[in-house]
TrEMBL record:
Keywords: Membrane, Transmembrane, Transmembrane helix
Top-level taxon: Bacteria
InterPro entries referenced in this protein's UniProt entry, alphabetically: DctM, TRAP_DctM-Dct_fused
Organism ancestry: Bacteria, Bacillati, Bacillota, Bacilli, Bacillales
Protein name as annotated: TRAP transporter permease
């Protein structure tokens, strides 16, 4: 590649196939079978889009909505995912068709009989029992195929605990085992499968997966990467820093570590290798930055909407509290990358190879507008699904008309006028929200403005031409990406149901508190380990739901504020996604990087560990969380001081992990770096002063050693 050649971005056409294969599906169907999957996926997406914008259909309650959501999910799982990988299937086998039909039949039975006397009174008929057992079997088999064995094993342990708990000693002993009651509670009440996790998946998560899929189909991934490369590409280790930033922006929206890693990694990993990063390191950087995006506002990979259900806080309060820790965690990854580049003297890309920021913004900067609209409606107080719906409306308007009107201005304006007039008329005819017409009008206006701007500066239109094919591809990708969340949330509902039915909800906090001896730091350390173990191989949504029910209450009981406790378990739940040996994002990118998956996973965990101690900081000193209950309690100088000292602690810990700062650390310097990071956790002015002094000492020692080494390298003068 010549220096004057601009970097071009070409999305991998097989991204969807790779994502499905990594999740356990290597079934590649064609013809009418592929069309069947496409139609079902589109219908599923359209159904959720309708409910987000217009509410539930007449006669459809919340439970019915969850039944429809789960039925679509289960049927698609058995059509897309084979019984095991490696079979080389090119068609859907007969028994998977049969299982999909059984799933649809079970869904219809649940829908038709949810108000029957036997269900309402809890006196199940024989058919109710058979359907309930079948549903449990379907959920577990779908979970095994999509998520993998870890969650199935955890679920089996919980079920075994329900039936064998009377053999255990206190405090784990319980005497509530009853088979009929178990089936009824898990399948016909809100205590099991149709509990809060599945409700969140159906109401909140799917619509944001759809938003992210459509946004990616419009070429937003290219925009994020181009802008990040322009900002960071020319600096030391520039492509890696650009990967961190672009993956973070996309990861906040997508909520899927695997999909995000493959989408951005297809382009960023070869660039990182080109400038000198080792294959496993390049893959590890992409893993860390893709996974941690789920901590970044405004969408947080749908975690913010899960937290709405488990905490007393609003969306605006949650993203405000998450903002500073999320930014600090990404600064940690960036600093890790910078140290890695310094260790191996890895340069950036020549400026001539980078796409102009002005060109990028004029080409497709309009794709940022839907995200701004989303935040506006959420902060204004609209419901979460409604805000996502309005964002999708303006996104589709922008993506459609920006190309159409540039190619054929007259026809484009005519169609735009018809669409705008129709959406406005529907406000009066069918009582559509006036915001729909406003979003369409705004989208048309911005499209026209962008076209004029592109012509004024003689800049080509965005390379992705959005049409019906791209729209359907976005709908299908959304449905496919949601399957992991659907089945994981259904299984998580069973786990939470067992916890509640056995009384373990009240016992667990007491057990943890007693085990920690009322030492908060010890309790936090136990919680960290529990999060990493429970989160192995699980999607973040399922991990958070389990931890929010089992672990967060213990921290709250020990005096940790609710917000801090939930952000604590969320952070380590996300980190668990990067923990070897079960590390799907690492397996995703290892094929792109041509690296070994386990070593790539280790590097991913390493690069994601720069802010490993940060949750300890905000759990014991909540100043940086900007909690609503702390409003007016701390001045901005105090908040700034706490952010600064948290950042210094992160820098010290990154230096400890990398074993390098200005030069390679000696043993005592590494111990000094670790001690500095640990001192900054406490948050008092005395420990902060001590930490600053230790850090100054470390920097001074490194500076003197660096100066001495540089002096040795100078050639002798005559």
């Amino acid at each position: 590649m010549s220096k004057k050649e601009e970097i071009s971005y070409q999305a991998d056409p097989d991204i969807e196939e790779k994502v499905n294969e990594l999740a356990g599906s290597d079934r590649k169907v064609r013809g009418w079978m592929a069309m069947l999957i496409l139609v079902m996926a589109i219908v599923m997406s359209l159904y959720h889009l309708y409910t987000a914008g217009f509410g539930l259909m007449p006669g459809v309650g919340t439970r019915t909505h969850m039944i429809i959501h789960l039925t679509f999910g289960l049927a698609l799982v058995f059509l897309i995912f084979p019984i095991k990988r490696g079979l080389g299937q090119t068609k859907i086998v007969w028994y998977d068709f049969l299982i999909a039909l059984i799933a649809i039949s079970v869904g219809y039975y649940l829908y038709a009989n949810q108000t029957s006397n036997s269900i309402l009174t809890g006196r199940m008929t024989q058919m109710d029992m058979i359907v309930g057992i079948t549903l449990l079997a379907l959920v577990f088999e779908a979970t095994r195929r999509v998520v993998g064995k870890p969650l199935v094993i955890i679920g089996s342990i919980f079920i075994a605990y329900f039936f064998l708990g009377h053999y255990l000693n206190p405090p784990f002993r319980h005497t509530r085992a009853n088979f009929d009651n178990f089936i009824y509670e898990m399948t016909y009440t809100s205590s099991g499968i149709f509990g809060t996790p599945l409700s969140v998946s159906a109401v909140y998560v799917f619509i944001f997966i759809l938003f992210g899929a459509i946004l990616e189909a419009t070429g937003a991934g290219k925009m994020f990467i181009d802008l990040a490369l322009r900002a960071f590409g020319k600096y030391k280790g520039g492509p890696a820093k650009a990967a961190v930033v672009s993956s973070g922006m996309l990861g906040s929206i997508s909520g899927s570590s695997v999909a995000n890693a493959v989408t951005t990694g297809t382009f960023t990993i070869p660039l990182m290798k080109k400038v000198g990063f080792k294959p496993q390191v390049a893959g590890g950087i992409e893993v860390a930055s893709s996974s941690s995006g789920q901590l970044l506002p405004p969408i947080m990979g749908a975690a913010a909407f899960l937290m709405i259900e488990y905490t007393p806080y609003s969306y605006a309060e949650i993203i405000r509290s998450a903002a500073i820790p999320a930014i600090l965690s990404y600064i940690a990854i960036l600093f890790m990358v910078h140290i890695e580049a310094s260790k191996h003297n890895i340069k950036g890309l020549p400026k001539e190879m980078l796409v102009s920021a002005r060109k990028t913004l004029i080409q497709h900067g309009y794709l940022i507008l839907p995200v701004i609209i989303l935040v506006y409606f959420l902060v204004r107080g609209n419901t979460v699904p409604n805000a996502a719906f309005f964002s999708i409306v303006i996104l589709l308007t922008l993506a459609t008309f920006t190309h159409r009107m540039r190619e054929k201005m007259g026809v484009g304006l005519l169609i735009a006028a018809v669409v705008g007039g129709f959406s406005y008329a529907m406000h009066f005819v069918l009582d559509w929200n006036i915001e729909i017409a406003v979003m369409v009008a705004l989208g048309i206006f911005v499209s026209l403005f962008v076209i004029l701007l592109q012509k004024q500066f003689k800049i080509d239109a965005a390379p992705v031409r959005f049409g019906v094919r791209e729209l359907f591809a976005g709908f299908e990708m959304a449905a496919r990406n949601s399957l992991t969340v659907v089945v994981a949330c259904a299984t998580a509902g069973i786990l939470i149901g067992v916890i509640n039915l056995t009384g373990l909800t009240a016992k667990l906090p007491v057990i943890i508190v007693n085990f920690a001896g009322e030492n908060l730091y010890l309790a936090l350390a136990f919680t960290l380990v529990a999060c990493l173990i429970l989160g192995l191989g699980l999607p973040t949504t399922a991990t958070y739901v389990i931890l929010a029910a089992m672990v967060a209450p213990a921290l709250v009981q020990m005096g940790v504020p609710i917000m801090a406790a939930h952000l604590f378990v969320l952070y380590y739940g996300i980190l668990a996604d990067d923990t070897p040996p079960i590390n799907l994002p690492a397996y995703a990118v290892s094929g792109i990087a041509n690296s070994e998956p386990i070593s790539t996973g280790i590097q991913g965990f390493k690069f994601d560990s720069g802010a490993l101690l940060l949750p300890f900081v905000f759990a014991t000193n909540t100043v940086i969380l900007l909690l609503p209950e702390n409003a007016g309690l701390y001045s901005w100088p105090v908040i700034a001081q706490n952010i600064f000292t948290a950042l210094l602690g992160i820098i010290a810990f990154v230096v400890f992990i990398q074993n390098f700062f200005l030069v390679k650390l000696r043993f005592y310097e590494r111990i000094l770096a670790l001690a500095t990071a640990l001192v900054f956790i406490h948050g008092s002015w005395m420990t902060d002063v001590a930490g600053i002094l230790l850090l100054i000492l470390l920097v001074g020692i490194q500076y003197m050693r660096k100066k001495k080494d540089d002096g040795k390298e100078q050639p002798a003068t005559t």
